[in-house]
DNA sequence: ATCCTTGATTCGTGATGACATTCTTCCGCT
DNA sequence: AGCGGAAGAATGTCATCACGAATCAAGGAT
């Protein structure tokens, strides 16, 4: 007993700042291209500049933030090539995770994923976009965690953090309504143990969101 | 002209520290489990604690370093499960990158990869292990860069940084001699445009190294 | 009216210092 | 001799500050 206990990590200040920034990123509170100054965040969170600096450094390290203007960091503005690259990689890696998840499928997982799907459909009807975004993230994350690969899950999580600020702009569209069709297909495929169908449905889910996003971002520029 | 010019990034102090730490990691200068104190690095590099702290934070963020004892950070000691997880993910992601690279194959790439293979075989004969490790990294990196996916290349690069400190322990074995057989097979497959064969050879390359490493690390524990 | 220049402000980088926690060592107890 | 605790050293965390670079704004020149 107690051989494999990790030492308890106290929540350092910079960890809390990091988590809050991640939440804000997932909720689309950051406009791409807009600077995120240390002092503003520090003031808003009621902490000194130091832990904020550390949190921003971490987000910078995993590619979520980038230099946007000489000295300032912020969510980078993604061009068409970068968005497409992100999509291509996500398609491969996330569909891989789903295939692994189907292999590791068990009863507890099925129950949880059913519950999450139910909550997704509930939030869809209520029209609460923020809740839908949050639940959608939980749904996908739970899916990938079932791959039982911490490395893969972590990679995917950072990729999500990179696209979230941009994907959030889909809120004005009705993308989330068609998205649940794919979600249902994913869950059904998992119940049947059909890894190929599940990854197909996931790919359709990601691709649809990508299509809408690209159309929204670049339809005016091409004219 | 000059529309798409990125602002020139001066080499900040923490960037230089980060690069040097990465090099040291790839050269196996860090023993897993051993603490890497800020003050020691700062003194060794002749800088203050601040830039070192920032560099370590970045390495911590991408999972290369981890908490090893309450307060200290260092290269984490990897158990069998973690090594296997890393291998599984690397197998999938790196073979994917190679398949993409074959698709994007061009003359300049072929010339460069031929040159790198030649240098690999030269360093193999000279027995200069440090040079072999370095060239091996360049060979693989160049391979993955041809996937023309910055996201994928970056993911792979951090994965390499995570395993490098452990893989370096293979220096005492003669692993690098059989490794070049796989390298040659990879290059030949690329020349033929055979993506499947190339990824197969890459998988064999990674798997062999993994096998030797696992045997070395865990042969005594299982008795 | 537009562009350039210049001063003021903002902000990031790196340095230093105070404080709390952890690690280490050594001494005393059993 | 082995174990446990306490004092000292070492180290990470966070705050604050000095400095320089970048941004912004206002005023002057064309």
Automatic annotation (TrEMBL), chains A, B:
Superkingdom assignment: Bacteria
GO molecular function, one term: DNA-binding transcription factor activity
Keyword set, alphabetical order: DNA-binding, Transcription, Transcription regulation
Cross-referenced SMART domains: FCD (SM00895), HTH_GNTR (SM00345)
InterPro entries: GntR_C (IPR011711), TF_FadR/GntR_C (IPR008920), Tscrpt_reg_HTH_GntR (IPR000524), WH-like_DNA-bd_sf (IPR036388), WH_DNA-bd_sf (IPR036390)
Keyword NAD assigned: no
Residue span, HTH gntR-type domain: 11-80
A Pfam short name: FCD
PROSITE patterns: HTH_GNTR
UniProt protein name: HTH-type transcriptional regulator McbR
Species whose genome carries this gene: Roseovarius litorisediminis
């Amino acid at each position: 007993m107690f051989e494999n206990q990790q030492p308890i990590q106290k929540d350092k200040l910079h960890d809390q700042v990091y988590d809050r920034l991640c939440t804000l990123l997932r909720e689309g509170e950051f406009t791409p291209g807009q600077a995120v100054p240390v002092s503003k965040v520090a003031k808003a969170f009621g902490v000194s500049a130091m832990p904020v600096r550390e949190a921003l450094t971490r987000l910078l390290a995993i590619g979520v933030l980038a230099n946007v203007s000489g000295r300032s960091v912020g969510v980078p503005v993604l061009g068409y090539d970068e968005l497409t690259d992100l999509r291509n990689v996500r398609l491969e890696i996330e569909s891989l995770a789903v295939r692994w998840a189907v292999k590791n499928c068990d009863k507890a997982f099925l129950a949880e994923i059913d519950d999450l799907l139910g909550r997704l459909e509930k939030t869809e009807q209520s029209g609460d976009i923020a809740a839908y975004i949050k639940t959608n993230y939980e749904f996908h994350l739970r899916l990938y965690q079932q791959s039982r690969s911490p490395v893969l899950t972590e990679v995917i999580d950072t990729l999500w953090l990179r696209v979230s600020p941009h994907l959030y702009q889909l809120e004005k569209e009705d993308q989330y309504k068609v998205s649940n069709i794919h979600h249902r297909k994913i869950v059904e495929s998992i119940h049947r143990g059909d890894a190929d169908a599940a990854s197909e449905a996931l790919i359709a889910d990601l691709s649809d969101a990508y299509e809408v996003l690209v159309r929204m971002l670049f339809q005016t520029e091409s004219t």
